[in-house]
Amino acid sequence: MADRPKHGLARGLTNYGDADFSLYLRRSFAKSMGYSHAMLDRPVVGIAHSASGYNNCHRHFPELIDAVKRGVLAAGGLPIEFPTISLGEVFLNPTSMMYRNLMSMDVEEMTCAQPMDSVVLLGGCDKTLPAQLMGSISANVPAIHVVAGPMMTSLYKGERLGACTDCRRFWGRYRGGEISQQEIGRVEDGLATTAGTCAVMGTASTMACLAEALGMILPGTASIPAVHADRLRAAEASGMRAVALAKEGLTPDRIVTEKSVENALRVLLAIGGSTNAIIHLTAVAGRRGVEISLDRLNEISDETPVLVDLKPTGPYYMEDLFAAGGLGPVLRELRPLLHLDCLTVSGETLGQRLEAVPEYVDHKVIHKFDDPVYPEGGLVALFGSLAPEGAILKRSAADPSLFEKEGRAVVFGSLDDLAERMDDPDLAVDADDFLVLQNAGPKSNSGMPEAGYLPIPGKLARKGVKDMVRLSDARMSGTAFGTIILHIAPEASVGGPLSKVRNGDRIRLSVKERRLDLLVDAAELAKRTPKADLADPTRGYKRLYADHVLQAPLGCDFDFLRKSGK
Ligand code: FES
Asked: Are strands 118-123 and 44-49 parallel, antiparallel or unpaired?
């Protein structure tokens, strides 16, 4: 028994000081689950899933897992599912972002500690796919991801509703007094009506597209709706492919490279993707020792047009992207700008994949390169005295009339302060002011929530003001729209310049020059005490997080999880 090849259940034996005994014991206990000896001799495919009663987006996972298992069995493997942490976006306090790294550690450690020759990872809701990508890259066991797929829209009074751009649109109308409490209740019933991830180009959909661009999910599968039969067929095919991956030994380090990360960055810009995705992609790349510089982001942004016309910026939803042809036609439009020699999890290179001409493309949804939705990339990085290490603006989701502007700061020192005073009728604010939120970054007590979409103060909302310049060290939901500057680094809680902004200061924004400056002289700033609210938990994961989380330009990963070097 000692010279048996180390695959399947023989991998990574529990240490009792006698390897043969360990394998005998493991097989014996596995047989208690009813497996035959022949089945236990097959290559083992782990299925890491993130189903949970606290995750509405993953409620179809039992069916999806069955389909993966069917594929594994058909290809001669033994599927063994195991749960990992799940992060249901709206069910976590203070924010799902705080737990992304914890989930990535769970995925990495359980993939490495348990015997499997390859792993299929099922995720989708905002932080789950980034966490799984980070974990699978660090584990570097042959891996294929399967995404949940987007929700379907529903109809309300003849109007399409989909989470979550429409959530915010209707909430804005409710806050502005345009619709009643009864009506917002009916909208609440109809915003999220099927399994799957948010129906627009939010963070989950953006990350699904980036996973396809990276080559970590099967081609053509990013946009398949959660409830479509093709989603089950994709899961079955992924299960089959996982068996082949186990035999080929194709590991993530051969797929996720500097070139494939750059492809993903380009796709992020071309789809008008979520601002969160730049943080997640940076963290994913960091697990391979690949750096993403915000200067490089700006260069790529200048040469990459937005081609996909989905909400929150356009009129369409993810199900429309699927019907229009999916991500494949987008990649074909971008082909001259992509690294085509990148290997994908299918075993083909990206170039080989793109040789097939799509049968049908709806160019209302997926624009041609020479007829873009927006001539430049959706995201841009800003630098300046207020953001020495950078900040992000989703210019494709912002009002261009606010891009070159100087304004007076109206400062909120924390989320609690914001909640307390935003609707105060005595708040000294007008539509030309810049709203500033401090202490909402990764090391703050709030754990970098999606609070950067500061609401328009009640008294201005009621006058019909729809957009203002808003700045913070927080994040923003990928489903939101507005002139919102995010991820300011260094954050206020560690004493960054943001912590020294005071009411009435002048701030200058120039998107053209990529600048964000606090127009206060150095002598005055030196006199000011930072308003810094640094989290200081006493124990557990939160202590680990506080000690090791990095700033947004490093993906908010933990310092000890990043891989240095290429
Ligand atoms: Fe899960 Fe939006 S709540 S993707």
From this structure: parallel
* Distance (Å) of CA 343 to CA 143, 196, 260, 346, 470: 13, 28, 8, 8, 41
Q: How many CA atoms lie within 13 A of 406 on its CB side?
A: 8
Kind and range of the H or E element at 319? helix 318-324
Q: Check if 89 has its Cβ closer than 6 Å to any atom of ligand 1.
A: yes
- Amino acid sitting at position 368: K
One-letter amino acid at 453 equals Y
Q: 511 - beta bridge partners? A: none
**Is 198 close to ligand 1, i.e. is its CB under 6 Å away?**
yes
Q: What is the pLDDT of residue 1?
A: 43
Residue 336 gets the label, from left (phi > 0), alpha (psi -120 to 50) or beta, of alpha
Are 180 and 173 in contact by the 8 Å Cβ rule? The answer is no
The confidence score (pLDDT) of residue 2 equals: 44
What are 33's two structure tokens? 């689950």
Please report the atom of ligand 1 found closest to the CA of residue 198: 2
Residues of the chain under the 50 pLDDT cut: 1-4, 565-566
The residue contributing the CA closest to ligand 1 atom 1 is 125
**Tokens describing residue 350:** 């990206």
Contact 315, 160 (CB under 8 A): no
b/e code 512-550 from CB counts within 10 Å (16+ = b): eebbbbbebeeeebeeeebbbbbbeeeeeebebbbeebb
- Which tokens hold the place of 372? 């873009």
Residue ID of nearest Cα to ligand 1 atom 3 = 89
Residues 312/165, Cβ–Cβ less than 8 Å: yes
Name every residue whose Cβ is closer than 8 Å to that of residue 23 and which is 6 or more positions away in sequence.
Answer: 1, 4, 9, 10, 13
For 464: left if phi > 0, alpha if psi spans -120 to 50, otherwise beta; the answer is left
- Under 8 Å between Cβ of 561 and 104: yes
- For ligand 1, the distance from its centroid to the CA atom of residue 198, given in whole angstroms, is 5
User: Cis bond leading into 530, ω under 30°?
Assistant: no
For a pocket test of ligand 1, which of 89, 103, 276 has the largest count of ligand atoms closer than 8 A to its C-beta? 89
User: Ligand 1 center to residue 41 CA distance, Å?
Assistant: 39
Structure tokens at 170: 């209707």
Return the pLDDT at 329.
Answer: 98
- pTM across the whole model: 0.96
Task: Reduce the DSSP state of residue 185 to 3 states and report it.
Answer: helix
For 257-278, write each residue's pLDDT tens digit. 999 999 999 999 999 999 999 9
Confidence (pLDDT) at 164: 84
The Å distance, Cα 202 to ligand 1 centre, comes to: 8
pLDDT for 461-471, tens place per residue? 889 898 999 99
Domains of the chain and any CATH numbers:
1-35 (no CATH), 42-152+194-354 (3.40.50.2300), 154-190 (no CATH), 380-535 (3.50.30.80)
Q: Give the nearest ligand 1 atom to 197 CA.
A: 4
